[in-house]
Specification:
The complex is a heterodimer of chains A (125) and B (332).
Chain A (H helix, E strand, L loop, with lengths): L2 H13 L7 H32 L4 H10 L5 H21 L7 H22 L2
Chain B lengths: L1 H30 L11 H25 L7 H4 L19 H13 L12 H4 L6 H9 L2 E3 L10 E3 L13 H7 L11 H4 L3 H10 L16 E2 L7 E2 L20 H16 L3 H35 L11 H5 L8
Antiparallel strand pairs in B: 1-2, 3-4
Classes of the chains: A mainly alpha (125), B mainly alpha (332).
Keywords (chain A): Electron transport, Membrane, Mitochondrion, Mitochondrion inner membrane, Respiratory chain, Transport
Pfam families (chain A): UCR_hinge
Protein name (chain A): Cytochrome b-c1 complex subunit 6, mitochondrial
Chain lengths: 125, 332
């Protein structure tokens, strides 16, 4: 087997068109059709997403609301509710309040955010 | 060995003390015939006891006067301490999530940049972290910057380059105050480092606006109630609302998602070296671990012959002549 054999073999390999030369065109057609399908499915997904986006709810709000009503934060919520009741009645009766509920609000918010923090970050990307 | 010698010294010290006490006892016993009785009168201990009582008293009085912290501020003036959130990028074996950085930069551009500057970040810093070179160049060219003075000494405008810094929304602080009702929107470049609580504080501040302030709380005109801001009255109104931006990667743009992304971006802006720093930390750890293991093996190699040697004492053979000699104390 000499170098001439190698050259002739190489010539044979590259000169004649390969038998599956037609294949890529078909594949392209298939890809196009699949692309179209994907596009249509993309459209459908986008529509779904748009529907979802219209209803986007901040998970932080819902989680903290759950936490606020949980047993864990019951004392803080109890004090906050009592304070709100007291202060609103003062405002209704005297026109002004002798105290505010900021501190009670802080305790409740502290409890609720601490309770919701790990759940929230597991939901966010 | 050391412990044993220490014990021995302690024992001898105890013996000495015992001797001393027995000596004083014998001395007092010998002198007891002259004094009335063995019990010491209370006046003998009055001075040390009185001095001790005075010392305790002064310390107590000092603590009473100066020892305790004086908290003059109300909780509302201190602000609510932000909650600790489990930040992924803050873990010591994690890096920034660069998708989140990209989303965060989008939030900064679309929401924050209208009031807050980011003047310490050049476009080139974004390349490779947040966007590609071409994207960054295109972004830079959207803005105009001053050129060097030309032949006539006039300063012209040119499109931005990668080496330019992000444009500020206002010319100077006074213009910013004038546009924002007297309140200055701070520069955000180092904000994560500049505020107590860092990422947690900014995230809590952005998402923590309650729908209405708690009952009885007084909110000044032009301010908004935010529990996390010291004093609770903040000039910035709530800016992040659900679906305010539309993310390129299809992430649901909830308020907390946007806040999380922009906070991670701001953390990157303040600490762009964090990823490299952690990489360097791992290099240090791995190299020192290798050296530590090596040192243990070398130590064992060096000490093996020393530890495994055996010291044998072979007494000289007694000469039979000496045995035959009479011992001095024995009668032969």
């Amino acid at each position: 087997m000499g170098i001439t054999d190698f050259i002739s073999a190489a010539w044979d390999t590259f000169s004649t068109p390969s038998p599956d030369a037609e294949e890529p065109a078909q594949a392209n057609k298939e890809e196009e059709s699949s692309d179209e399908k994907e596009e249509s499915s993309d459209d459908a997904e986008e529509e779904e997403e748009e529907e979802e986006e219209e209803e986007t709810v901040d998970p932080k709000e819902t989680l903290e609301e759950e936490c606020r009503n949980s047993k864990e934060c019951h004392p803080a919520k109890h004090h906050y509710d009592a304070c709100v009741e007291r202060v609103t009645s003062q405002i209704d009766n005297d026109g002004k309040a002798s105290e505010d509920c900021v501190e009670e609000f802080f305790h409740l918010a502290h409890c609720a955010t601490a309770c919701a923090a790990p759940k929230l970050f597991s939901q966010l990307k | 060995m050391l412990a044993r010698s220490a014990l021995r010294t302690a024992r001898s010290a105890g013996a000495a003390a015992r001797n001393a006490t027995s000596k004083t006892a014998s001395r007092s016993a010998s002198s007891s015939s002259s004094t009335a009785e063995g019990a010491a009168p209370w006046t003998a201990n009055a001075l040390p006891v009185g001095a001790s009582a005075f010392a305790i008293g002064t310390v107590a009085w000092y603590y009473h006067l100066y020892g305790r912290n004086v908290d003059a501020m109300t909780p509302a003036e201190e602000g609510l301490h932000p909650t600790q959130y489990p930040w992924e990028h803050a873990k010591w074996h994690k890096t920034f999530d660069h998708q989140a950085l990209r989303r965060g930069f989008q939030v900064y551009q679309e929401v924050c940049a209208s009031c807050h500057s980011l003047e310490r970040i050049p476009y080139r810093a974004l390349v490779g972290n947040i966007m590609t070179v071409d994207e960054a160049k295109a972004l830079a060219e959207e803005n105009e910057y001053d050129t060097e003075p030309n032949d006539q000494g006039e300063i012209e405008k040119r499109p931005g380059k990668l080496s330019d810094y992000l444009p500020s929304p206002y010319k100077n602080d006074e213009a910013a105050r004038a546009a924002n009702n007297g309140a200055l929107p701070p520069d955000l470049s180092l904000m994560v480092k500049a505020r107590h609580g860092g990422c947690n504080y900014i995230f809590s501040l952005l998402t923590g606006y309650p729908e209405e302030p708690p009952a009885g709380a007084v909110v000044q005109e032009g301010l908004n109630f935010n529990p996390y801001f010291p004093g609770t009255g903040i000039a910035m109104a709530r800016v992040l609302y659900d679906d305010l931006v539309e993310y390129d990667d299809g992430t649901t743009a909830s308020t907390s998602q946007m806040a999380k992304d922009v906070v991670e971006f701001l953390n990157w802006a303040a600490e762009p070296e964090m990823d490299d720093r952690k990489k360097m930390g791992w290099k240090v750890l791995s190299v020192s671990a290798v050296l530590f293991a090596l040192s243990i093996w070398v130590k064992r190699y060096k000490w093996a012959p020393i530890k495994s040697r055996k010291i044998a004492y072979n007494p000289p053979i007694r000469s039979p002549i000496l045995d035959k000699l009479p011992k001095p104390n024995q009668k032969s």
